[in-house]
C-alpha cells in the first residue's frame, strides 16, 4: 500500500482538527477520507458519510484514521450496502467509541446495521423522498439513485440512496454511488443544491462482468452538477481500488472546457476544506 498518497492530517491530529475547527454560520467544513468517505461539520456536529476505514491489502492507501480512534461522530450516514460504503468492521468500532452517534441507512439495510452491532434505537431507516430532521437546523432528504439499476425491497424502499442535507440553509448533496439519468436530475433540481459531491469513476462492461457496479463518468458528474444548478462540485470515488479508479484531472479539464464558471475542489485524504456560501441566506 502507498501511504504517501495521504498528505493531509491523520490519526489524532486529524480528529483534533475536526474538534477545533470553527465553522462560520454561512459555511461548512468537509474532510475527505478516501473513496466516498467524507466528514461534514456544521453547528458543532460531525456527520460521517460512508466511513470505509478498514485495513485491507486492496486499498491504495492507509485509512487516514482508524475506526477505533473515532470518538467524535454525531451522525453516520450510509448510502448503500456495498462493503466500501457500509463497512461492518468500521461501523462496529465507530459505534463503540462514539456511543452518542446515530446511524442513517437505507431502510432495506437496517438488518445489516444490526448485524454490525448497532443498536436498533440508534438506527434511522431512510426512505427516498421522506425528509428527516436530525437536530434543529440539520435535516436531510434521501434521493433514490441507480447503481446500474434501481433496486427496491418488497415494500418499495430503495437500496441505493443519495442524501440532500439542509445544513442551516446551505444545501449539500452526497450522491453515494449513482448513474446519471433524467429521474435523478428531476429529483434533485427542486432542492436547489449548492454543494454537490459526485462519483466520477464511471462504468463499463468489463467491470460490470466482475460485479463492479458503475457510477457516473467524470463527464456525467460534471453535466449533472451543472444541470441541477450546483455552485460547487467535489469529485469522489476515484482513488481507492486498482482497476476501479479515475484520474480527477480529466474531470477538472472537462469542467474547464464546458463549465468554466463551475467551482470545484479536488481533495486528498485527510484534507480539510472550508466552504463559505455565496448565496443569500
From TrEMBL:
**Residues annotated as domain Metallo-beta-lactamase:** 47-238
Q: Which residues form the signal peptide?
A: none
Write the protein's name: MBL fold metallo-hydrolase
Q: Output the Pfam families linked to this UniProt entry.
A: Lactamase_B_2
Catalyzed chemical reaction(s): 3',5'-cyclic CMP + H2O = CMP + H(+); 3',5'-cyclic UMP + H2O = UMP + H(+)
The function of this protein is: Counteracts the endogenous Pycsar antiviral defense system. Phosphodiesterase that enables metal-dependent hydrolysis of host cyclic nucleotide Pycsar defense signals such as cCMP and cUMP.
Keyword field:
Hydrolase
Q: Does the keyword NADP apply?
A: no
Record keyword Hydrolase present:
yes
The record ties this protein, via InterPro entries, to: Metallo-B-lactamas, RibonucZ/Hydroxyglut_hydro, UPF0173_UPF0282_UlaG_hydrolase
